[in-house]
Amino acid sequence: MKIPLSWLREWVDFSWDAQELARRLTDSGFEVEGIEPAAPDFSGVVVAQIISIEPHPEADKLRICQVAASTAPGAATTQIVCGAANARAGLKVPLATVGAVLPGDVNIKAARLRGVESAGMLCSAKELGLAATSSGLLELPADAPVGQSLREYLSLDDSVLELKVYANRGDALSVLGVAREVVALTGGRLKPPTLTAVPSNAGDAGPTPIVEAGEAAPRLLTRRINGLNNHGTTPLWMQERLRRAGLRSINPVVDVTNYVLLECGQPMHAYDASRINGALTVRMARPGEKLTLLDERSVDLAGDELLIADDAGAIGLAGVMGGAGTSITTDVTDVLLEVAFFLPDAIAGRARRLGLHTDASQRFERGVDPQLQAGAMARATSLLVSLCGGQPAAVHEVRNAGALPVRAPVSLRRSRLALLTGANIDDSRVMTSLNGLGMKVMPEWDGWQVVPPPWRFDITIEADLIEEVLRIVGFDAVLEQPKRLPQRFVRRSESLIDERAVLDVLTGRGYQEAINYAFVDPALQQQLFESGAALKLDNPIAADLSVMRVSLWPGLLKSAQENLARQQDRVRLFERGRVFLPEGATVNEQLRVGGVVVGARTPEQWGTARDAADFFDLKADVAALLALAGPAAQFEWREGGPQCLHPGRSATVLRSGAQVGWLGELHPSLRAQRGIAQAVLLFELDISQAITAILPVVAPISRFPQVRRDLSITVPQSTPLSAVRNRVSVAAGSLLRDLTVFDLYQGPGIESTRKSIALGLIFQDNNKTLKDDEADALMTSVAADLSSQLDAKVRD
């Protein structure tokens, strides 16, 4: 929310400068994210008037202007060569005199253009940094004082505060809302603008609106203004205020509705009255109904949206955006203004579901003052008639008083205030603070009974009032007080691996930690896990963040893509977080760690080739994580995994027969759909199951030497190494101390359907020295077992 200080000062008096006001607001809970000037730096620009204009003799698009830049008696005119199409005699415009400096360090000098002297430059809004685009000179009002500095005339040395308004404070999304906060901080009074009453004429007021959804729209006002002229230009003062608040000028009617929105926080909409068929109707959407919005996008409605309609169908999404069919153009002469109070629950989530985020929905979702509509209608009517003329008809109001929200009184106990704040705040200070915020305060024997104002939807419990008192009084009033509390130490199992150990292993292997939302894009998650159900959010913050994740991969994959799009050619990211697995009526939350790898195996350097990371690089990273469980933990790597992984380059990790994770390369078809040219490697482990340590068992160290025997065998290609390990362990018995694989071969000399594995077996007896014949007997037993169980053949 952007608030120009000059606009705020019209509503409330305060002596603070922008920096001090920002500090005070931040201290009271309104974070000021930035202070920016109303316009970029420039100098030497004054208000001037074009006295005469004639064609340039050498250029068809250029004209020679005689410009008055001073009203002093006998002051000479200045000759300016200008190519703007809207330059004309009598027009008042900004003139950058010789020596002026414009934004971007543009220095204005006297010049000769096609043989004609030009002593300065007539400026557009873009050249002064007041607009992103412009089609001609900036036209100033006819009463602009010639010779006055443009910065002074337009108050361009004004400051603009950018406020971070939290979701519970929708009432502060306006100049009026911020002014109320300043009043509470200063103890001053509000100075609302003086409304000029615009009487209704006897003209066509149109049919009375119909409200079918009275529970969702308990108050609706409409007013028709006939015969207005929308061909004019919005006054510069209004354009400037809109610009400083972050909105661009469109046309006078639309600008007035936006101006009222920013000024008092009441969204309103203007319709082309000539294109409304019958009575304006507020109703719920019908399933399958379509609506074309102002941005020309057609949306399919689910049936729970609140609509503005006429006899022919929907013409607007209530509280969000109007329809294209009744949009306001410059040719409109009859306008129907609509101002309403919609319940927050009737608007919340609908805009985000459709991928929209509008100023209107932002306010209606948080709650608009239900008593503001009549004043907003009067303000908009007054501004429109003064700018565009026209004859306003009578105001139609449809009201469902029983559905309008009523602020219930909330009790504030003196003892509770002292307990939660830790401060002794005088009763008078408490009442002054709450009264300053527009609340009705009635003293009681143990505290106060407080009725929040109608615009404060966030005040419902005692703690809310305590927060209000404390932020107005100041958090400095809270003093630190030492407390004596009993210390209870929770016993921690040695089998639990510290989180830092997991992070250290991955960062030590070149990964960087990513933190993603727990809600993800349903389309992406469906691509990865076609058969997996996901928990849907009732009120998502965006359409592409509408389901809870069942894996860490959707967030990691999206983060990897964003890095690749920003020319990061080597991406290694990991995340530690919870996934949410629906199980009937409950949700199973699991803590997992996952990672994504794209690009080269090692950072670029002269000593190694730029080989791409592959499945076995990823397996080494996962093995380093699993090593945290200790040497006694037994893991099995079984071929295959989720369908989103490459069937020949993926594996499922099992621990004691239970599935604890997956790893592998993203399926090529999915990689192509995502537009990624390189191989994408992914892993994910259930932390609680995979990395729980087995407590070490103390055993004596043998005094007798080890004996090593090597065995080379061939087995069918489909035989996993884990099966070989298991059979060797069974056949060798308790004398086997270690088993290593030191060679794997496929190629000439080996059958095409088989692979060669070379094993190193280490034997040791704790009670005696093993003899060669004993070791040979063990090897014979191992070879026989492998032959009978796994179709293994011993190689010479």
Helix content: 25-40%
User: What distance lies between the first and last C-alpha atoms, to the nearest angstrom?
Assistant: 80 Å
Counting DSSP H or I runs of 4 or more residues, the number of helices is: 21
- Count of the domains: 6
Mean pLDDT: 90
Specify Rg, calculated over alpha carbons: 37 Å
As residue ranges, the low-confidence spans are none
Structural class designation: alpha+beta
Largest sheet features: 7 strands, mixed
What portion of residues belong to β-strands? 25-35%
Instruction: Name the CATH class of the largest domain.
Output: Alpha Beta
Shape-level CATH architecture of the largest domain: 3-Layer(bba) Sandwich
Main sheet strand line-up:
26-29-30-34-33-32-31
Question: What is the H level of CATH, i.e. the homologous superfamily of the largest domain?
Answer: Phenylalanyl-trna Synthetase, Chain B, domain 3
